[in-house]
Design brief:
Organism: Orbilia brochopaga
Family: Belongs to the cysteine dioxygenase family.
Distance between the termini: 87 Å
EC number: 1.13.11.20
Order of helices and strands: EEEEHEHEHHHEEEEEEEEEEEH
GO molecular function, one term: cysteine dioxygenase activity
CATH class of the largest domain: Mainly Beta
Helix content: 10-25%
CATH superfamily of the largest domain: Jelly Rolls
Number of helices: 6
Protein name: cysteine dioxygenase
Shape: elongated
CATH topology of the largest domain: Jelly Rolls
Radius of gyration: 27 Å
Structural class: alpha+beta
Bound molecules: fe (ii) ion
Strand order of the largest sheet: 6-5-12-9-14-8-7-17
Number of domains: 2
């Protein structure tokens, strides 16, 4: 039978011999000798997953994960007084965590690892196998084929904060136009594309009349109050005139869901803000009523762009995850002109409340302005 330390070891083979237990005597510090005195035998790892290892050695241990040939190697070395985790390339070792273990202290405080420097690695309870898809649908819409191809997810798989936001904005009454007073979408399009109108003037004001930055402007129309648990007001209607786009940006580690209320928006996801952000997958064009999401660990960096000829209107909803005690109220972004992370991050603001915006559009609208007879 297997001995206790190997019950959870998928790679252990049962020799049929009785289990043999050896215990370390903590008073005398005498115990079993280190298990490996010779060179260790390599263990093949196929695919992704968790490597669970239980060691009884009183000496240091060293783990090396490497491809069959060449580099890179991941090397974790632990002794009674030090720990180091590094990436070994052909010519240099790159430390992945700072060595913060102090002399005689056998523990590395997790919070020191997280905040000592810009974190380069993260730890999670479960292994990362495949990412969740970016598109969220109700359980009524998901099919076996969707699950097989992992092309959509249901809300239940999302982080808790995204689930709550999703429920608040998935209903059939969350629409742009809920009265017949006037054509709200047409009035918005006219306003943001016509010089002299309220929307166009506001966009110019946001880029300080810098025509090079004009295409990077969009309107943020806030809905409701700031509840103190999101970067800025949690519900924001964003207005994207044709050809306008956001820079590549993150979201202060907040969770978010985004629903298209009108038109289409192209969403491109990135692994980080850089240097040299890498696209995670092909950009997706989201159409009316489609909902996408982002969490503190997935899809945190993206860029939105309206590539259509019609204005797009989206509903952005934000909330910090329950475990987030930092509440970074700023979005970092890549400055389009320098291609570097901007020194001053974006503070989520409000260009107008929805109530005022509705009144401005109503006052500006006329059938003639919007191409009607
Ligand atoms: Fe965003």
């Amino acid at each position: 039978m297997l001995d206790a330390p190997h019950f959870c070891d998928l790679f252990s083979e049962d020799t049929g011999a009785p289990a043999h237990y050896e215990f370390l005597d903590s008073r005398t510090k005498k115990g079993p000798k280190p298990l490996m005195k010779k060179s260790p035998k390599p263990l093949m790892i196929n695919g992704k997953g968790t490597i669970a290892i239980k060691s009884r050695t009183t000496q240091g241990v060293k783990f090396t994960v490497k491809p069959e040939i060449g580099y890179p190697m991941l090397i974790l070395e632990i002794t009674q007084s030090t720990v180091s985790f590094s990436l070994r390339g052909e010519s240099e070792d790159i430390p992945l965590v700072p060595n913060v273990m102090s002399e005689g202290n056998p523990y590395v405080p997790a919070e020191e690892l997280d905040h000592a420097t810009e974190p380069q690695i993260q730890t999670h309870r479960l292994p990362v196998t495949v990412d969740l898809p970016p598109l969220v649908v109700t359980n009524e819409l998901v099919s076996l084929r969707d699950l097989d191809l992992a092309r959509v997810t249901t809300w239940a798989n999302l982080p808790e904060a995204c689930q709550k936001l999703y429920h608040n904005i998935v209903g059939k009454n969350i629409v742009l136009q809920d009265t017949s007073e006037f054509d709200f979408a047409a009035a918005i399009h006219h306003s943001v594309t016509t010089p002299g109108c309220w929307g166009y003037s506001k966009l110019l004001e946001k880029c300080h009349n810098d025509t090079n930055r004009f295409q990077y402007t969009y309107l943020r129309i806030t809905i409701g109050s700031n509840l103190g648990n999101s970067p800025g007001i949690p519900y924001v209607m964003e207005i994207w005139p044709p050809g306008h786009k956001s820079p590549i940006h993150d979201h202060g580690d907040a969770c978010a869901v985004i629903r298209v209320l009108y038109g289409k928006i192209q969403c491109t996801w990135y692994n980080s803000l850089g240097p040299d952000p890498i696209k995670l997958c092909n950009p997706a064009t989201l159409i009316k009523d489609q909902i996408t999401w982002l969490g503190n660990n997935q899809f945190q960096c993206h860029a939105l762009e309206n590539t259509e000829s019609e204005t797009c209107i989206t509903l952005q909803c934000y909330e910090f995850p329950r475990e987030d005690n930092v509440h970074a109220e700023k979005f970092r972004f890549i400055e389009a002109t320098t291609n570097k992370i901007a020194k001053e991050p974006f503070i989520p603001n409000s260009d107008c409340t929805l109530t005022d915006f509705y009144d401005y559009m109503k006052a500006e609208w006329s059938p003639k302005n919007n191409g009607e007879n």
